[in-house]
Amino acid sequence: MPRLVDRFFQLLEAVMVICLASMFVMVLGNVILRAGFNTGIDVSEELPRFLFIWLTFIGAVVAMRENRHLGVDTVVLALPVRWRRLCWMISQILIFVCSVYIFVGTFMQHEINATTVSTVMQLPMSWVYGVTYFTGALMAALCLHNLVRLARGKVRDDELIQVEEEGMHEVDSSVEAARK
């Protein structure tokens, strides 16, 4: 099962690369056509924006799995491990609640998005904003997975601090030494 999950996230990373490359090609092509030939491709105005939305939301899921989101850990670093676990659990619960709100909010907005079409491509906006179904569901699942791991005692102490900066290992060592 872990290999299947890893493959799935590799697929998501590939989708992100395709989105970014497509955005680059369309915007650059449109700039060249406008500057050099006084023309352009209408779809190149709209599709890169939609791809950027997908790229952002898929990237948020990938970043969550890899613990790459921004965070402030100044207070948590000073806490003993037991309190760090509590803070981590609370943060996972809060992220879970927000993810559920994202999913439910998208569901509540679905009919409006399905009946509204984009100007150029005539694409139902539910295709554009429907990525938040995916994001909300996957982030909620990741949070549940983390909470189950925490309950089973499978969360390592180094996972409790999710912020990694250059030179932070020296700070961690000095805090641990001061605590002892």
Alpha plus pi helix count: 7
Count every beta strand, where a strand is a DSSP E run of 2 or more residues: 0
Radius of gyration: 21 Å
Question: How much beta, percentage-wise?
Answer: under 5%
Distance between the termini: 40 Å
Order of helices and strands: HHHHHHH
Q: Main sheet, how many strands, which sense, barrel? A: none
Category by helix and strand content: mainly alpha
Uncertain runs with pLDDT below 50, 5 residues or more?
none
The coarse overall form would be: elongated
User: Quick check: average pLDDT?
Assistant: 89
Proportion in helices: over 70%
Could you explain the architecture of this structure?
With 180 residues, this protein is mainly α. The protein has 7 helices and no strands. It has helices spanning 2-37, 43-65, 74-77, 81-115, 125-129, 131-151, 168-179. The radius of gyration is 21 Å and the shape is elongated. The two termini are 40 Å apart. The mean pLDDT is 89.
